[in-house]
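Minutes, project check-in
Item: structure for the 332-residue chain
Input as provided by the requester:
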Amino acid sequence: MKPRIYTILPIVLAIALPGIGFFLSENNAIDDTPLAIKWSYTSIILLLLWQILNVSWRFKPSIKQFFFLFITIPVFIFIIPLITYYIGFKENFGLEAQELIRMIFLILIFLIIQYGRESQLKIKELELEKEQLAKEGYKAQLKSLRKQIDPHFLFNSLNTLRSMVRQNHNKSEEFILNLSDFYRSTLKYSEETTLAISEELDLLNSYLQLMKSRNEEAVDFEISSIEKPYSHFILPSFALQNIVENCFKHNSMSSKKPLHIQIISTTDGYIEVRNTIQEKITQEPTTGMGLKLLERRYKLHGIDKGVIASNQNGIFKVKLKLINPENERINS
């Protein structure tokens, strides 16, 4: 879609340039004609000239464009004095040298403006293509990352379920329902690049309920309500779950020393995940791609500081920027 300025610009030029010409010209061939008529007549000619040149940009390759202009412009210049003579603006047929120079000058001005416009549109198209390719690349990375996580999580969940069934655990059915809800949501949103904050929190709650069933008293979590001004905002899909997964991956937990996880929204437009730092004796190998990929996904939304991590007084915090859907530049 072309910017509105390119629709308005030819109209402005067609109205303004005749006025400049009339004031600067010492001799005018149509002096006996009222100024309003002269002005309107010249404006119409300039609009037609703009449209002729505008059509030429549709020809590819450039040689076709050249031949179109080579034929059309001389015909146009020939028709102008013919119409002028026919309607009585001029007493003799012909185009004076001063008028010809003025016409060539206007053609050059219009060509320069339109070349700049076409170049700008081309640059924007290339930027959009580059952005789309980057988006698809990061989406592929996200899918690849999820394929690495999901089988491991499902395997552990099924082991937990088997253990619960063997023990005739009273929450076995609840665990199955939570597992079903979680994977149903995962499949539902698997193609989405962003999710509403309410959807993200529902997905996270299903995940945390599963982890609570698996670890019982070893896990303690709290999800606070979102600040009202940000309730309709969005996040990169599965962002909260990825952060919380890291909490479990890098920290130990037991019934005597449970892992505390808290999710709150802040007044500066972030949602924050906090967890107590309880480092494992043996850390699992990690690529560190999770947070880096999340940061890149935020950059696709034009946000540089989308992920802010900090470590204070035994509490690890990760802040995720809430995105205003009204300011979105990337379609999901």
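Outcome recorded: The domain at 138-327 is CATH 3.30.565.10 (Heat Shock Protein 90).
No further action items on this chain.
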